[in-house]
């Protein structure tokens, strides 16, 4: 059974940063700097996204001499879809409750 939980704000930030240029390979360090996440938060998110098929990961093919190869990341098609979906959710969440259609399970009206 798959869980249908909303991604954390940190995961959404990673998805949106990668979705800005979805075909471009990105380094974890660069992503962390861009969105303000430390390695202990960022890399577990990247690994979960990869394990769920939302992210591709590969090793840098030709690192500069004296530096080890780094992992590179980019979104898969499913990852781009989730990034777009979370962007829509973010917009929906910012809309006043009185102006939006209730989601399944939300109660309508006052008690």
Question: What is the fold's blueprint, element by element?
Answer:
Blueprint: H1 9-19, E1 26-27, H2 28-35, H3 39-51, E2 55-59, E3 71-75, H4 77-94
Antiparallel strand pairs: 1-3, 2-3
Helix pairs in contact: 1-2, 1-4, 2-3
Comma- or semicolon-separated keywords:
single chain; disordered C terminus; three-stranded antiparallel sheet; mainly alpha; Arc Repressor Mutant, subunit A; 45% helix; 111 residues; 11% strand
Give your account of this protein's structure:
The chain has about 110 residues and is mainly alpha-helical. It has one domain: Arc Repressor Mutant, subunit A, CATH 1.10.10.10. The chain is about 45% helix and about 10% strand. The protein is built from four helices and three strands; from the N terminus they run H-E-H-H-E-E-H. The protein is globular. The N and C termini lie far apart (about 35 Å). The C terminus is likely disordered.
Summarize the structure.
By secondary structure, the protein is mostly helical. The chain has four helices and three strands; from the N terminus they run H-E-H-H-E-E-H. It has one domain (9-89): Arc Repressor Mutant, subunit A, CATH 1.10.10.
Order of helices and strands: HEHHEEH
Q: Please provide the count of β strands.
A: 3
What topology, given as strand order, has the largest sheet?
1-3-2
Helix coverage percent = 40-55%
- CATH level-1 class: Mainly Alpha
CA(first)-CA(last) distance: 35 Å
Mean pLDDT over the residues: 82
Shape: globular
CATH architecture annotation: Orthogonal Bundle
Structural class: mainly alpha
Overall number of structural domains: 1
**Unreliable runs:** 91-111
Beta-strand proportion: 5-15%
The CATH superfamily is identified as Winged helix-like DNA-binding domain superfamily/Winged helix DNA-binding domain
Largest sheet: 3 strands, antiparallel
């Amino acid at each position: 059974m798959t869980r249908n939980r909303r991604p954390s704000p940190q995961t959404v930030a990673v998805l949106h940063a990668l979705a800005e240029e979805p075909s471009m390979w990105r380094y974890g360090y660069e992503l962390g700097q861009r969105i303000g996440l430390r390695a202990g938060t960022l890399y577990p998110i990247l690994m979960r996204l990869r394990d769920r098929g939302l992210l591709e990961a590969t090793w840098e093919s030709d690192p500069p001499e004296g530096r080890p190869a780094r992992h590179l990341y980019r979104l898969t098609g499913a990852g781009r879809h989730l990034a777009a979906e979370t962007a829509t959710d973010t917009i929906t969440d910012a809309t006043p409750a009185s102006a939006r259609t209730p989601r399944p399970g939300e109660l309508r009206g006052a008690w």
